[in-house]
Request: fold
Amino acid sequence: MSIKITKECINCGACEPECPNNAIYEGGKKWRMSDGTSLGLKRKREKGEEYFCSNPIVEQEPKEKDIYFIVSEKCTECVGFYDEPQCITICPVNCCILDKSNIETKNQLFKKKNFLHEK
Ligand code: SF4
Ligand code: SF4
Reply:
């Protein structure tokens, strides 16, 4: 399961630097699969179109304009890095919650983590 940010977000920015996958962005900011991951040009040339999005270095449109948002394609619930989702732990208003529309098993989350950070 991915984590999502609800409308109660107060835009404090505390969660963004805590994410090991660079999956959290400020409202209105464009995002890329390659931000904070190993999905760069080199892997694209070697392995072709096997990404969640067609090109990891292309900027994608923001998912929210006025509040911070989590890119579910990059969120691993912190699996592979920490025992607990760091954004949930640090958010002062408890607006980081489980996204029940994005359910993934722990095994799937490990695979996603390895995909994002493969050397
Ligand atoms: Fe990032 Fe972890 Fe929060 Fe997912 S749960 S957005 S990986 S800090
Ligand atoms: Fe919003 Fe919580 Fe992140 Fe602060 S820590 S930006 S309130 S989601």
